[in-house]
Each structure stands twice: as C-alpha cells, then as structure tokens.
Amino acid sequence: MKLTFNSNFLFIFLTILIVEILIGKYLHDAFIRPFGGDVLVVILIYTFFRIFLKTNNKQLALGVLIFSFVIEFLQKANYVTWFGWENNKIMSTILGTSFSVYDLLAYFVGYLICLCFKD
C-alpha cells in the first residue's frame, strides 16, 4: 500500500457523491434510492480510498464490503441511538436506521463493480 493522489478517482468520487446527494434529496422511489444508492455508497467509499491509496483493489473492495456489512448489522442494533443521533436527520440518513437483507445485496453488487476497477 502506497500513499498517492489519483485525480481520476477524485473525479469518480465527486461525481458519485453528487449523484448520491441528488438521489437522497430528490428521489423517493422504491428502487433507485434504496437499492441504487446503497450500491453507489460502496463504490463511493472505495473510490475515496483509491484517491489516496495505491493498493490491491480486491483487498480494498473486500474491506469496504465488510465495513458496509458491519454498519448494516449495527443498524439492526439501532446504533444511531447510542450516539443520540436518532433525531438528527443528516446523521440518521448517512448512517442508516434500519436493517435490510436487500441492503446487503446492494453492497455486494457495489463490491462486484469495485472489482472492475484496475489497480
């Protein structure tokens, strides 16, 4: 693993971040917001790390997938209340408040997409 700066991944990260914000703010459907947004969040986290790290992309993608799964299972334990953020709309939205098996599937799809990026 090496520290670096990759402007291509910065561009991808910023593009996905803007798309995620737009989805969260304006899209209230039953598929793209809950499933597509969760697919994109895995790619968003992955591309953020790739801006600064030159590393094995498979290991990084797996690490992001495991992190995403851990957060999802913490949602089942209602962990947002541990921090007193249950009434904070921004933090509740970012961290999530409900467990779903479909979210785990979405994270896995995002992981598969991350595997398509080259080292």
Explain what this protein looks like in three dimensions.
- The protein is mainly alpha-helical.
- The protein has one domain (2-114).
- It is 69% helix and 3% strand.
- It contains 5 helices and 2 strands.
- The protein has helices at residues 7-26, 32-52, 57-76, 89-95, 101-114; strands spanning 2-3, 53-54.
- It has a two-stranded antiparallel sheet.
- Helix 2 crosses helix 5.
- The longest helix is centred in the middle third of the chain and has 21 residues, at 32-52.
- The model has no long low-confidence stretch (mean pLDDT 93).
Can you tag this structure with a few keywords?
119 residues, mainly alpha, two-stranded antiparallel sheet, 69% helix, 3% strand, globular, transmembrane, DUF2809, membrane, DUF2809 domain-containing protein, transmembrane helix
